[in-house]
């Protein structure tokens, strides 16, 4: 049965790319079939590095090319590479995913997701700061950790996750990318990773879950869900917010992204994935920008751009601590710079939470500016 399915796909694949990689096959097959079928196919095609000891240089941030390179380089100097292992045939990589999603989801089938590599699970890493923000946050934001799924892409990160968190998922890659080696920004493997993340998000939608994807360099101080409109199919953070939440002229940042599972949003993800081939060589955030004007009206899709007063970032910094919900270390290159500035942010936040209501209202607490990136 699987063989039959595959042969019906291959003409399409060869049409597109000639020498077809497994990924291409999966992408096109999936975009033409219902969610359930994907289980068989990915099991069938996952003749890929399942067991990678050592380094992944997965990305958490579309704007943080150098951070990726940094973290990978830092790891390369300390980690030992295992010999390339024989491919392992997983029974179904997605079965496990459904179980993790079911456990972590809210009653209305919403999960929060982030994606990490091994460097970020160490003490003093971004993952530590991420957790610290929830724990020093206000209004019950810490309770949202119950709904957080941490997606890992290498065994070390998976073990690191399990040591500190309940809902960890090991995303086995079937795209042939060797996550042990360093990825240069916009290299073929870098694009493969970013598009892999995008494809994974589509899978979550197809399984019937809404998700809020957050990069791990986003600090969570208050519950951001109250700023996500019930009317929005997609709510995405803004590098630059121009004042109108539904204007497509806002500049999106996929590092903080809510998507409601529906036929419309799944169609949008299909178009998004196809955009990869229409606009060959672009990464997924650029393609989002290129297709939003065409696809939003076509699918009658409400895309809400989140106001940076609440869902903020270094690109357009919210200076009102009474309003801020989340703060993303975007417009910031380099893992060291992010760690430095977010540490400073958390220290100010801690003082703020200890302040009296009067002090808070009077604006006594302000970010320490400038940092390395934050200004
Ligand atoms: C991965 O492969 C290495 C070496 O081949 C082996 O020692 C290790 O136990 C494997 N890990 C997993 C999670 O399969
Ligand atoms: C926090 O408050 C303490 C005590 O007032 C002060 O010494 C410290 O500099 C403050 N830290 C920051 C980051 O503002």
Automatic annotation (TrEMBL):
Residues 144-342 form the Nucleotide-diphospho-sugar transferase domain. It comes from the Eukaryota. This is Nucleotide-diphospho-sugar transferase domain-containing protein. Keywords: Membrane, Transmembrane, Transmembrane helix. The chain crosses the membrane at residues 12-32.
